[in-house]
Amino acid sequence: MPVPRRPADPERWFRTRPDSSELERPRLLARSLIDVAELDEDISHYERLLGTPADLRMPIPDFGGLELAAVGGLLLIASARAFTPVQRQTAYSLIVPSLEAQLDLLEGTGTAVLEPPEPILPGARARVRYPDGALAELVEHRPWDGERPRPAAFGAARTDLPATGIRLLARRAVEDADFLDTVRLYETLLQVPAVARPRLTGPFPARTAIVGNLLLVGLPAPVPHGAPQPRAALIVPATQGHTPEAAVLAGGLTAEVWSEHPAGAPRAPRPAQARTGAGHG
User: Fold this and answer.
1) How far apart are CA 188 and CA 130, in angstroms?
2) Which structural domain, as residue segments, surrounds residue 189?
């Protein structure tokens, strides 16, 4: 089936950066799979939570009936039909400057290409399995005929969003013995150095590193096989006071909560407690 040269509904489509070749490095996004009927509400929720407007929205009815939107470090993937097992298993989406160059970079890292490159309306895509077992979808963005950069085209322009100081990152946990090797791996995959010694307090004492839009956590003890792990993390200012260990966000996304302390502040771990959920807001 040929790829359409323009979206079916271009007025509902916007990207502030249609050509990802302008990116200096891959942009990693956490993923939330939702019903398409929830998309408008969930976009507004994450705009308020993160204090930043959505920077892309792409209805792609010819590609599995999907509609995508990105807010900060999160990609909302909406569909009117059931998601496939591989869609549910995929941990990250990466918008890359060049799909070909990204796949060349991955050679020699132990990354396996599960789905080879194919053209799609936003540009081109592939799916890979990283050496740590995480699945990632790689997408390069290229403008369709006549597309120009433009801000949000749905609802009112979000110029009224106050800064919250909250970031949403993808989250990957590994055993402490594998932590440093995993940091080095993602520095290579994402082409960005880890943030040096981020001062974070979380649900348990652990080594942490932020690589791009990814929080890596070194677990102090092995996790039982099959135990659920949150795929997202909220980084909140420590000045907000007490925070729950985990929050259930719009679309049912569970995020582990970490407090970021300013330089020079004490870094005492929070006492262990039962996980609590934060409702939509």
Assistant:
1) 11
2) 167-260
pTM for the structure as a whole: 0.89
The pLDDT of residue 20 is above 80 = yes
Average pLDDT, the chain: 87
Lowest mean pLDDT of 89-103, 177-191, 214-228, name the range: 214-228
| Residue-wise pLDDT tens digits, 95-113 | 999 999 999 999 999 999 9
Contact of 206 with 236, CB cutoff 8 Å: no
φ and ψ of 22, to 5 deg: -80, -10
**One domain for residues 121 and 201:** no
* 1 residue type, one letter: M
CA 67 – CA 60 distance, rounded (Å): 6
CA distance 111 to 246: 31
Same domain, 111 and 15: yes
Instruction: Please tell me whether residues 20 and 81 are part of one structural domain.
Output: yes
- Whole-number pLDDT of residue 158: 57
Distance CA 65, CA 181 (A): 39
Q: Are residues 16 and 99 in the same domain?
A: yes
| Nearest-angstrom CA–CA distance, 22 and 13 | 20
Calpha distance 130→105 (Å, rounded): 12
C-alpha closest to that of 185 among 131, 245, 248, 251: 131
Tokens of 86: 């591989």
193 and 109 in a common domain: no
